[in-house]
Amino acid sequence: MTTTLVPYDEALTRYEPVLGIETHIELGTKSKMFCGCPTEFGAPPNTQVCPVCLGLPGALPVTNQAAIEGIIKIGLALNCSIVEWCRFARKNYFYPDMPKNFQISQYDEPLCVDGHLDVEVDGETYRIEIERVHMEEDTGKSLHVGGATGRIQGADYSLVDYNRAGIPLVEIVTKPIVATGDKAPLVARAYATELRELVRALGVSDVRMEQGSMRCDVNVSLMPTGSSVWGTRSETKNVNSLRSVERSVRHEIERQAGVLDAGERVVQETRHFHEDTGTTTSGRSKEEAQDYRYFPEPDLVPMAPPRAWVDELLSGRPELPAARRARVREEWSLSDKELQDIVNAGALDLIEETVRAGAEAAAARKWWMNELSRRATEQGVELTELPVTPADVVRVSALVAEGALNDKLARQVFDGVLAGEGTPDEVVEERGLKIVSDEGELAAVVDEVIAGNPDVADKIRGGKVAAAGALVGAVMKATRGQADAGRARELIIQKLTG
Amino acid sequence: MSTSVIKKTAAEVAEIFASGEASAEEIAREHLGRIKAVDGDVKAFLHVDEDNVLAQARAVDARRAAGERLGPLAGVPIAHKDVFTTKDMPTTCSSKILEGWQPPYDATVTARLREAGMVILGKTNMDEFAMGSSTENSAFGPTHNPWDLTKIPGGSSGGSSAAVAAYEAPLATGTDTGGSIRQPAAVTGLVGMKPTYGGSSRYGVIAFASSLDTPGPLARTVLDAALLHEAFSGHDPMDSTSIDRPVPPVVEAARRADVEGLRIGVVKEFGGEGYQPGVLARFREAVELLESLGAKVVEVSCPHFTYALPAYYLIAPSECSSNLARFDAMRYGLRVGDDGTRSAEEVMALTRAEGFGPEVKRRVMLGTYALSSGYYDAYYGKAQQVRTLIARDFDAAFEQVDVLVSPTTPTTAFPIGERADDPMAMYLADLCTIPSNLAGNAAISVPCGLADEDRLPVGLQVMAPVLADDRTYRVAAAVEKALQDRWGGPLLAQAPDLTEAVK
Amino acid sequence: MPDEHAATGSAEEAASGGAITRDDVAHLARLSRLALREDELEHLATQLGDIISAVARVQEVAAEDIPPTSHALALTNVFRADELRPGLTPEQALAGAPASEQQRFKVPRILDEEA
């Protein structure tokens, strides 16, 4: 069955989207959730396993305290209540990448409940209500061999690596997100972005969507505008970037509008998002409803986080993104737009570190947001990946401030640093990039230039001081840009009119 | 050293080793000889590797020679239930699905036996995945009761009980989920102890029902059981449900062996219909004996104990349905039907159907039912509430008395085959033992004589509060001492001589 | 545990410890991943029916307001420090595997039912 997509704007004239987002975040603990195996990404297959995470007969789980601290930090940052008592539960279903054929998770007793996260889209604030935040363990990973490339469908067999099995996973579930209208895809993206920033700020996960340490499942349903009865939802998985969060919502709105317009019913199903086409395809439809037979995990004892512990985690936490943004906006005198640009460029940490290391905020922002952002874009890398440190920027700014460099020379210094020629001082030294500040040397050049341009010199003598620009240009050219242009101008005028 | 070392208690064998009268190797050889002589008929062991046993024994001798301070049971051989993982021996839980599986790690109990300088003779037969009361549910054939080879040795630790009763080993490990140590001990004339839940580590014990499974000792004397209890119990950071407290002073209690002034409660609900007259007679005598030794005996009602059996047969299967899901032909064990065309799902289902025996399948299905959508509250949920009520019955009882007593099991050993396809009849064997599994408290079975009808052993169960394990040893030791004075020796001395019978 | 569990089976059915049909057994077998033969399904329908009506006795107990017990002892907050412990080598991990390839567990093709 092919569905005719309804153009987005048109779809929004007839339908109101309702969203729900389930986000899985792998915590960056040293060891796994229930055993002492490492959690490093990208290790050779089955090198980070033990009887516990392989689910060997007889092995038992023991909860990693750092993981529980991590989830409580996330819960608190999302304004959740931390429950006084809760248990782990077993979610029973068979799947080869799940070593015990049950996942240790939480069912009706999540650790954190009833929170919210405010996100901003086009100057408007949307409050995303958080239903629950619970703790669970990740599964292994399968490599599908034969058939179409790497796809599970049509594969001949699969190869399973359990390195990822048992990595602590926090699941964050929103309440239904309503009344976002045509902003729905942007709100979804803003939520995922803000959540990622929040978790990153807490330092409990590297939240790298491309590596799967943050994964979003996005539920979308449509109801006719003006109705209050929610439609049937689809659940889109495999949404592996912030951009995909936005695109998948947009696509589902267009697709479901097409289904509904055709008088058909939206099927409750899992759908897979495809980055290349920006579309979703049907996964398994839940014909036989799953029966997970949850029951309290008997191998783990209940958790009852003492109030003092929770308070300690709360008081010891770092500044959260929203507060931080408000602070730097104030401290650096930024407009909303300027701040947003910095955040979007991923430059906030870098600029703040540069300022903290002694640079003026304006200078730090100028170098990171203009010069260095441009180069990152040219090279197709993140700003953080450039081989330039905040300390380098501090040094270059200082050299400019003290008049040892001008902007043009400073750019050449960055060229050198990026090319691996060393620190800014080493580049200055090696390339001989120094403003000619020796008065005698500069005066000699000025004299040469005056002698070489008698016409212009006459004009200046005649009172046309503005013509001095041409001579300054000539001085700069003669010094290969290393002269202090302001001082050169002063000298020229002094010599011709003084 | 004479060949009679095999008839010695573990405490005596330990003394023989400690004094240098015999090496661990010599002691091990004697027991290997006994196994060779009788195990063809008893079938207590699934796996005995002589070379491995002798190597272990020599290593213990070397440790002693090097001056290492070894534990009180150093040099003593032990029969190890096949539910504990052992990295130098296969571990199968008597299931085809795990046939030949060699674990890459030792259970905590296994590691502690080795540390103590004990010599593991081999792995003992059991009901598959510890589900049963007769050891008939082993995929590798039943074990026979040394008192009467046509009878069951109890279960699920039936290989362990038979091995110790047949003098193949002075000690054995067991696990008790609903009575799987106490009931086999009772029907073979041994002492069997279920420690307080969490008192002994489950790490490396292949799980049947996680919230009930408890490793414990089987022995020919109360003191031996206490020595073994002390050797492998205590806190284990690898088991979250392990209690971080010192092991109760069980050895001291076993040596104390007096009940003067102790208040003993007879559980009113355990007796009458369904109980073999010979069992009830020996039980009554044991109670009278305790009274004569200075205990104050009263009758105590535990009204919810009669619901323990149905609650257990919901909770244990529910947990087992989940625990046994991992046996799926993907990572270890049997794989059936993988012909390149079948999916993983089909291979899993075929393997599990082929690899599990009928009782395991029954319980997996029953547990799946009890946990499934729409039935959870009426079955699993209700059973969990009954569990609370049973614990409350114990609490109320222990406000009035120090220990509770009952027959360990309603009947003596029954014939092999009698209840094989009658699950409900089989389940009754655990009637009296289950409440302590549900509440997690300590309970022991100690021999109290032979039933008149069949001259087979009867066990007295002594139950004590959580972490009062020592109290059960104190009472059991008092009973043992008084009865042995009366009998002129251990009950087991009245068992037929197997080597004679075999000849 | 509420809600999800109240989805299918009816309360009366559950309370009566209702008869188990062959189809019920087949459903349970699917959930339990057991490829049972037809004769096993029939036999188990009878046996499970008997057992279930026996264990349904738990429903006779007046247990209103009685909290359920999931653990034998009331321990809470058992955690371990976030420290590495030596695990298995890939050879040890794969030693018991029915099949392996590229240092991974080789399993038959997976029907896309989950994940």
From TrEMBL, chain A:
- What InterPro entries does the record tag this protein with? Asn/Gln-tRNA_amidoTrfase_suB/E, Asn/Gln-tRNA_Trfase_suB/E_cat, Asn/Gln_amidotransferase, Asn/Gln_tRNA_amidoTrase-B-like, GatB, GatB_Yqey_C_2, Gln-tRNA_amidoTrfase_suB_CS, Gln_synth/guanido_kin_cat_dom
For the Asn/Gln amidotransferase domain, which residue ranges apply?
349-496
What the entry lists under SUPFAM superfamilies is as follows: GatB/YqeY motif, Glutamine synthetase/guanido kinase
Q: Which UniProt keywords apply?
A: ATP-binding, Ligase, Nucleotide-binding, Protein biosynthesis
- Which catalytic reaction applies to this protein? L-glutamyl-tRNA(Gln) + L-glutamine + ATP + H2O = L-glutaminyl-tRNA(Gln) + L-glutamate + ADP + phosphate + H(+); L-aspartyl-tRNA(Asn) + L-glutamine + ATP + H2O = L-asparaginyl-tRNA(Asn) + L-glutamate + ADP + phosphate + 2 H(+)
Q: Does the keyword Repeat apply?
A: no
Assigned protein family: Belongs to the GatB/GatE family. GatB subfamily.
User: Could you tell me what this protein does?
Assistant: Allows the formation of correctly charged Asn-tRNA(Asn) or Gln-tRNA(Gln) through the transamidation of misacylated Asp-tRNA(Asn) or Glu-tRNA(Gln) in organisms which lack either or both of asparaginyl-tRNA or glutaminyl-tRNA synthetases. The reaction takes place in the presence of glutamine and ATP through an activated phospho-Asp-tRNA(Asn) or phospho-Glu-tRNA(Gln).
Subunit and partners: Heterotrimer of A, B and C subunits.
Kindly provide the name given to this protein in its UniProt entry.
Answer: Aspartyl/glutamyl-tRNA(Asn/Gln) amidotransferase subunit B
What gene codes for this chain? Answer: gatB
TrEMBL record, chain B:
- One Pfam family cited in the UniProt record for this chain: Amidase
Instruction: List the active site.
Output: K81 (charge relay system), S156 (charge relay system), S180 (acyl-ester intermediate)
Q: Which SUPFAM superfamilies match?
A: Amidase signature (AS) enzymes
* Protein keywords: ATP-binding, Ligase, Nucleotide-binding, Protein biosynthesis
Keyword Membrane in the entry? The reply is no
Keyword Protein biosynthesis carried by entry: yes
Amidase domain ranges (all copies)? 26-471
Against InterPro entries, the record matches this protein to: Amidase (IPR000120), Amidase_CS (IPR020556), Amidase_dom (IPR023631), AS_sf (IPR036928), GatA (IPR004412)
Q: Which reaction does it catalyse?
A: L-glutamyl-tRNA(Gln) + L-glutamine + ATP + H2O = L-glutaminyl-tRNA(Gln) + L-glutamate + ADP + phosphate + H(+)
Q: What EC number(s) does its UniProt record assign?
A: 6.3.5.7
Function, as annotated, reads:
Allows the formation of correctly charged Gln-tRNA(Gln) through the transamidation of misacylated Glu-tRNA(Gln) in organisms which lack glutaminyl-tRNA synthetase. The reaction takes place in the presence of glutamine and ATP through an activated gamma-phospho-Glu-tRNA(Gln).
The record describes its quaternary structure and partners as:
Heterotrimer of A, B and C subunits.
The entry sums up its family as follows: Belongs to the amidase family. GatA subfamily.
NCBIfam families on file: gatA
Q: What is this protein called?
A: Glutamyl-tRNA(Gln) amidotransferase subunit A
Organism expressing this protein natively: Actinoallomurus oryzae
Please spell out the taxonomic lineage of the organism that makes this protein: Bacteria, Bacillati, Actinomycetota, Actinomycetes, Streptosporangiales
Q: Which gene encodes it?
A: gatA
TrEMBL record, chain C:
Extract the ranges annotated as region (Disordered): 92-115
> What reaction does this enzyme carry out catalytically?
L-aspartyl-tRNA(Asn) + L-glutamine + ATP + H2O = L-asparaginyl-tRNA(Asn) + L-glutamate + ADP + phosphate + 2 H(+); L-glutamyl-tRNA(Gln) + L-glutamine + ATP + H2O = L-glutaminyl-tRNA(Gln) + L-glutamate + ADP + phosphate + H(+)
- Enzyme Commission code(s) on record: 6.3.5.-
- Write down the Pfam families for this protein, in alphabetical order: GatC
Keywords (A to Z) from UniProt: ATP-binding, Ligase, Nucleotide-binding, Protein biosynthesis
Top enzyme category: ligase
Q: In UniProt terms, what function does this protein have?
A: Allows the formation of correctly charged Asn-tRNA(Asn) or Gln-tRNA(Gln) through the transamidation of misacylated Asp-tRNA(Asn) or Glu-tRNA(Gln) in organisms which lack either or both of asparaginyl-tRNA or glutaminyl-tRNA synthetases. The reaction takes place in the presence of glutamine and ATP through an activated phospho-Asp-tRNA(Asn) or phospho-Glu-tRNA(Gln).
Task: State the oligomer form and interacting partners.
Answer: Heterotrimer of A, B and C subunits.
Please state which protein family the record places this protein in.
Answer: Belongs to the GatC family.
Q: Which protein are we looking at?
A: Aspartyl/glutamyl-tRNA(Asn/Gln) amidotransferase subunit C
Species per Swiss-Prot/TrEMBL record: Actinoallomurus oryzae
Originating gene? gatC
